[in-house]
């Protein structure tokens, strides 16, 4: 039975606000309560409906049994879901991990959440799935929500050891929401799913079972950053050392969104041409492998299903041949060493440190002699986060940009 309830949200409600609905169902004199959490127009950093190819976003390792994959055995929506046991029941003494290939930028987040739908059958307290998060890709922490269990008692073969995990039987699709508040302020946040089964080979009920199926996974965040015109947030680009330009952007999209086009021009007024089309799910990024020598202006065009278009702001990247740079250490705690090879004539320039929003936090003037130049910058006073180091020439052109992480 499907029905609907009308409601009105405050006009002042900010994008990404968390909304909790509580309903009561009265049947036969018994009242049942349930709680549903929604987010108003959130900024989606990553979404996987599990309908594509597994290798697009995930990589897996396994010790015992089959590896993680997309399975068409069951799904919350569509025809596929992510599972650690795609070929049937999982085996005993198995460890299976799947890791998201990229990272999430929560540097400017005021709140952040992970959500997905899950259905599972596993031996209670012994076979489990942990949702794990890391800020460096090596030290992982299992995160908790209201459905995870963290039983410390390991008698009778329990394997939880006080660490939160999903375990047991959940025969209906359930929405899982995990609060990522502890990871706000980190420019790179990693995600993985870690499944383990114990080695008990007895005939105990549900010793081996169907395992876990995950669908419609989403990472969202809220931010106080000023929203750029027409739903765009945090559009920035950087010139890489191999003379390609990487463009990254975040955007609020709705059901009317169709695709993005990346446009480039040699001036900021006209003659923009399309160089890439992005029709997939977030995160949104593009690489210009053949930027023009000199000034390159970039903007993102958002196209809706009815043909309506809107544009981001325009950013400028200048490509010159005479500079090659390297920075170390990266990540850095106290002092950054910048090595610049100048293949042209003597040049007066300045080094700038900006945050991801483009705000200039530090400027140092220098003269680049022909050959190798080395400049040291004290960064100890800067807060731990992601920054960009830019070289600006005497014409106020950004001729090179590198990113670094302050620890």
Q: Can you characterise this structure?
A:
This protein has 1 helix and 29 strands. The chain has one helix spanning 54-57; strands spanning 18-27, 30-39, 43-48, 58-63, 69-71, 81-83, 95-100, 109-121, 128-134, 141-142, 166-167, 169-179, 190-196, 211-223, 232-239, 245-251, 257-265, 273-278, 284-288, 294-304, 309-311, 315-319, 323-328, 335-342, 347-354, 360-368, 371-378, 386-393, 398-405. Strands 3, 5, 6, 8, 12 and 14 form a 6-stranded antiparallel beta sheet that branches.
SSE layout and pairing:
Elements: E1 18-27, E2 30-39, E3 43-48, H1 54-57, E4 58-63, E5 69-71, E6 81-83, E7 95-100, E8 109-121, E9 128-134, E10 141-142, E11 166-167, E12 169-179, E13 190-196, E14 211-223, E15 232-239, E16 245-251, E17 257-265, E18 273-278, E19 284-288, E20 294-304, E21 309-311, E22 315-319, E23 323-328, E24 335-342, E25 347-354, E26 360-368, E27 371-378, E28 386-393, E29 398-405
Antiparallel strand pairs: 1-2, 3-14, 4-7, 5-6, 6-14, 7-13, 8-12, 8-14, 9-10, 9-11, 9-13, 15-16, 16-19, 17-18, 17-20, 20-21, 20-22, 23-24, 24-27, 25-26, 25-28, 28-29
Mean pLDDT comes to 85
- Determine the number of helices (DSSP H or I, runs of at least 4 residues): 1
**Sequence stretches where pLDDT stays below 50 over 5 or more residues:** none
Characterize the main sheet. 6 strands, antiparallel
Q: What would you call the structural class?
A: mainly beta
Order of helices and strands: EEEHEEEEEEEEEEEEEEEEEEEEEEEEEE
Helix content: under 10%
Rg computed from alpha carbons, rounded to a whole number of angstroms: 25 Å
Q: Count of DSSP E strands?
A: 29
Query: Could you tell me the strand content as a percent range?
Result: over 45%
Question: What is the terminal separation in angstroms?
Answer: 53 Å
What sort of overall outline do the alpha carbons produce when their principal axes are compared?
A: globular
